[in-house]
């Protein structure tokens, strides 16, 4: 008797195991801030990638894939005079994202978020073509990650979803951050449940 593949057992939208689907709990925010999530093509298919779930909650968002030799990624189309492009970068040599920083340029923000671990995100932030006009920013210090599924070697490392939620909390409002983090916490609990690591209620 054959066995079902892991992909067939997962919800195609939230990527959770079908019986632990979080789709009914996904909020929907139609915001001025635009999110552009950049993922390597090898990361796109991994169910532990958290960034794609944020796209489901944010109407003004999109996924861009890089790493295909025959289809190189170029983000130069993001350079438009009516918007300010920021790249979320995990380094300590760039400005901190804050309300004061945002008030220096009142244009609505296009936020580019590289999806990956600390090393991958830092490399993408420096090497993605077409972002010469963009400004690199980092998140202020905050609580440690609650995502224990992937090993994180940097103490400031966060799941991509967590980083997006915190950034939108600064750019948009604390209410948006709280709504996104509520979804993230549900995803964490159900992922732990699926792995049998704890009898955490959903």
Helix content: 25-40%
CATH class: Alpha Beta
Order of helices and strands: EHHEEHEHEHH
What's the total helix number? 6
Low-confidence stretches: 1-7, 198-202
Can you tell me the number of structural domains?
1
Number of strands: 5
What is the CATH architecture descriptor? 3-Layer(aba) Sandwich
CATH topology: Alpha/beta knot
Average pLDDT, all residues: 86
Q: Can you summarize the main beta sheet?
A: 5 strands, parallel
Strand order of the largest sheet: 2-1-4-3-5
Q: Between the first and last Cα atoms, what is the distance in angstroms?
A: 32 Å
Description of the structure:
- Helix 3 (99-103) links the parallel strand 3 and strand 4 (109-115).
- The chain is globular.
- The chain has 6 helices and 5 strands, in the order βααββαβαβαα.
- The protein has a 5-stranded parallel β-sheet.
- It is an alpha/beta fold and 202 residues long.
- Helix 2 (51-57) packs across helix 5 and helix 5 runs antiparallel to helix 6.
- The protein starts with 33 loop residues before the first strand and ends in an 8-residue tail after the last helix.
- It has helices spanning 41-44, 51-57, 99-103, 118-127, 160-171, 174-194, and strands spanning 34-40, 61-66, 84-88, 109-115, 135-137.
- The longest helix is centred in the last third of the chain and has 21 residues, at 174-194.
- Helix content is 29%, strand content 14%.
- Residues 1-7 and 198-202 have low confidence and may be disordered.
- The chain has a single domain, classed as Alpha/beta knot (3-Layer(aba) Sandwich), CATH 3.40.1280.
């Amino acid at each position: 008797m054959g066995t079902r593949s892991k992909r067939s057992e997962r919800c195609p939208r939230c990527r959770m195991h079908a019986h632990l689907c979080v789709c009914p709990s996904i909020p929907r925010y139609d915001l001025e801030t635009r999110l552009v999530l950049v993922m390597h093509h090898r990361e796109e298919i991994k169910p532990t990638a958290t960034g794609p779930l944020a796209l489901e909650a944010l109407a003004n968002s999109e996924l861009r894939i890089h790493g295909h030799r025959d289809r190189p990624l170029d983000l130069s189309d993001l350079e438009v005079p009516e918007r300010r492009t920021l790249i979320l970068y995990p380094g300590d040599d760039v400005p901190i994202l804050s309300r004061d920083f945002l008030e220096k340029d009142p244009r609505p923000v296009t936020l580019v978020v590289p999806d990956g671990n600390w090393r991958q995100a830092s490399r993408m932030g420096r090497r993605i073509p077409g972002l010469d006009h963009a400004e690199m920013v980092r998140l202020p210090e905050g609580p440690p990650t609650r995502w224990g599924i992937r090993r994180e070697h940097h103490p400031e490392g966060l799941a991509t979803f967590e980083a997006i939620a915190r950034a939108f909390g600064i750019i948009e409002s604390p209410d948006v951050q709280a709504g996104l983090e509520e979804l993230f916490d549900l995803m964490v609990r159900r992922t732990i449940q699926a792995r049998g690591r704890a009898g955490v209620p959903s």
